[in-house]
C-alpha cells in the first residue's frame, strides 16, 4: 500500500474518532439534562436549565439543585472512573475481559467500607469510609496481580478474580452476621446493592477528590499503555518501567473505585462494557480508548440511573442491580466470543 493511500485512511480514522467523541459528549450532556428532569416531578429541559441557573419556581430550584444535581454529578463521575479503570486494566493486562468488578476491586472496597461502618469507626458521611474502601481495593488488585503473575492467561485471571470477589463477599457477609445492630445490617444490605438515591453534595465532596485523583493517575500513564500493547520487553526497551506502571495503575484504580464505592455501593460491569462498546469505533489503541471509555461509562450509569427512576415498581430498583442484569449476559457473550476466537486459532 502506498503512502498516498495510507494518509487518507489515517485522516478518515481521525475524523471518525473526532465524530465519535463529539457524539459521546452530546449524549452525556443530553443524559445529564434528562437525569435532572426525571423523577416524581417531571421537568422539561428548558425548565431544568432555568432552575439550574436560579430561575423558575423555588420548588423547581430545590428539586434540581439540591436533590437531583448531586445524584447526576455522582452518576457522571462514578460511571467515568469505572469506564476509565476498565480501559486502563485492559491496557495494563492486554486482556479484553479485565475490569475492576471481575478482579474483586469493588467487592473488596465494599468490604473495607462495611467493616468500618460495622465497627462504628465511621458513618456513611465520614472520610474514613473512602479511605478504608481505597485500601481494600488496592489490596485486592495487588493480590490478584501477585497470584496471577505477569503473563497470566484468561482462565487464571478469571479464577483469581472470582476467588478474591468470593472472599470479599464472604468477609462482608461475616461482618454483617456478627453485627449486633439490625438497623446497621439493613442499611449496609441496601447500600451494597449499589444506588445513587438520596445523595447530597456532602457525598459529592466525599467521593469526587478520590475519583479525580484516580483519573489523573490513570491518564498520566496513557502513553505507557500504547508501548505495553507491543509486549513487555518492547515496552521496557522504549523506557517503560513495567513494574512501576503496574503499581501506579493499581493505585489509580484503587483511588477511583474506592472513592466511588464509598458513596454508591457496588456497581458492576460498567468498566467491562464501556471499553468494548468503544473499541469497534475508536480502535484497539489503549491510549485513544481511555477518554471515550470514561464518557461511555458516564453515559451507561446515567442511563441506568434514569431507567431505575422510570421503571414501574412497588419499591425502588437499585442501579447496581440493573447494571448487573445487563452486564452478566454481556460478559457471557464476551467469553463465548473469546472461546470461538481461541477455537479458530487452534484449527
TrEMBL record:
<dbReference type="GO" id="GO:0022857">
    <property type="term" value="F:transmembrane transporter activity"/>
</dbReference>
<feature type="transmembrane region" description="Helical">
    <location>
        <begin position="317"/>
        <end position="335"/>
    </location>
</feature>
<feature type="transmembrane region" description="Helical">
    <location>
        <begin position="154"/>
        <end position="174"/>
    </location>
</feature>
<dbReference type="GO" id="GO:0005886">
    <property type="term" value="C:plasma membrane"/>
</dbReference>
<feature type="transmembrane region" description="Helical">
    <location>
        <begin position="203"/>
        <end position="220"/>
    </location>
</feature>
<keyword id="KW-0472">Membrane</keyword>
<feature type="transmembrane region" description="Helical">
    <location>
        <begin position="127"/>
        <end position="147"/>
    </location>
</feature>
<keyword id="KW-0812">Transmembrane</keyword>
<keyword id="KW-0813">Transport</keyword>
<keyword id="KW-1003">Cell membrane</keyword>
<dbReference type="Pfam" id="PF01032">
    <property type="entry name" value="FecCD"/>
</dbReference>
<feature type="transmembrane region" description="Helical">
    <location>
        <begin position="289"/>
        <end position="311"/>
    </location>
</feature>
<keyword id="KW-1133">Transmembrane helix</keyword>
<comment type="similarity">
    <text>Belongs to the binding-protein-dependent transport system permease family. FecCD subfamily.</text>
</comment>
<feature type="transmembrane region" description="Helical">
    <location>
        <begin position="102"/>
        <end position="121"/>
    </location>
</feature>
<protein>
    <submittedName>
        <fullName>Iron ABC transporter permease</fullName>
    </submittedName>
</protein>
<feature type="transmembrane region" description="Helical">
    <location>
        <begin position="247"/>
        <end position="277"/>
    </location>
</feature>
<dbReference type="InterPro" id="IPR037294">
    <property type="entry name" value="ABC_BtuC-like"/>
</dbReference>
<feature type="transmembrane region" description="Helical">
    <location>
        <begin position="73"/>
        <end position="93"/>
    </location>
</feature>
<dbReference type="InterPro" id="IPR000522">
    <property type="entry name" value="ABC_transptr_permease_BtuC"/>
</dbReference>
Amino acid at each position: 500500500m502506498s503512502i498516498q493511500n495510507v494518509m487518507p485512511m489515517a485522516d478518515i480514522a481521525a475524523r471518525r474518532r473526532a465524530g465519535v467523541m463529539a457524539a459521546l459528549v452530546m449524549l452525556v450532556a443530553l443524559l445529564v439534562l434528562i437525569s435532572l428532569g426525571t423523577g416524581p416531578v417531571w421537568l422539561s429541559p428548558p425548565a431544568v436549565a432555568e432552575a439550574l441557573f436560579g430561575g423558575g419556581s423555588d420548588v423547581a430550584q430545590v428539586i434540581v439543585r439540591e436533590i437531583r444535581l448531586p445524584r447526576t454529578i455522582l452518576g457522571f463521575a462514578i460511571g467515568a472512573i469505572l469506564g476509565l479503570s476498565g480501559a486502563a486494566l485492559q491496557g495494563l493486562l492486554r486482556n479484553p475481559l479485565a475490569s475492576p468488578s471481575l478482579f474483586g476491586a469493588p467487592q473488596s472496597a465494599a468490604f473495607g467500607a462495611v467493616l468500618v461502618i460495622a465497627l462504628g469507626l465511621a458513618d456513611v458521611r465520614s472520610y474514613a469510609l473512602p479511605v478504608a474502601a481505597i485500601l481494600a481495593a488496592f489490596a485486592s488488585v495487588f493480590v490478584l496481580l501477585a497470584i496471577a503473575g505477569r503473563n497470566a492467561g484468561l482462565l487464571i485471571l478469571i479464577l483469581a478474580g472470582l476467588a478474591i470477589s468470593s472472599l470479599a463477599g464472604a468477609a462482608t457477609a461475616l461482618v454483617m452476621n456478627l453485627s449486633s445492630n439490625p438497623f446497621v445490617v439493613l442499611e449496609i444490605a441496601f447500600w451494597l446493592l449499589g444506588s445513587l438515591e438520596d445523595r447530597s453534595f456532602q457525598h459529592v465532596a466525599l467521593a469526587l477528590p478520590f475519583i479525580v485523583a484516580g483519573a489523573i493517575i490513570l491518564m498520566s500513564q496513557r502513553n505507557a499503555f500504547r508501548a505495553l500493547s507491543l509486549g513487555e520487553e518492547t515496552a521496557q526497551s522504549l523506557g517503560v518501567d513495567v513494574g512501576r506502571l503496574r503499581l501506579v495503575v493499581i493505585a489509580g484504580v484503587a483511588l477511583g473505585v474506592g472513592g466511588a464505592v464509598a458513596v454508591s455501593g457496588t456497581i458492576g460491569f460498567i468498566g467491562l462494557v464501556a471499553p468494548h462498546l468503544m473499541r469497534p469505533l475508536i480502535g484497539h489503541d489503549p491510549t485513544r480508548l481511555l477518554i471515550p471509555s470514561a464518557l461511555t461509562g458516564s453515559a451507561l450509569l446515567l442511563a441506568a440511573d434514569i431507567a431505575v427512576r422510570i421503571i414501574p415498581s412497588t419499591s425502588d430498583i437499585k442501579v447496581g442491580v440493573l447494571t448487573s442484569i445487563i452486564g452478566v449476559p454481556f460478559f457471557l457473550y464476551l467469553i463465548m466470543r473469546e472461546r470461538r476466537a481461541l477455537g479458530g486459532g487452534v484449527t
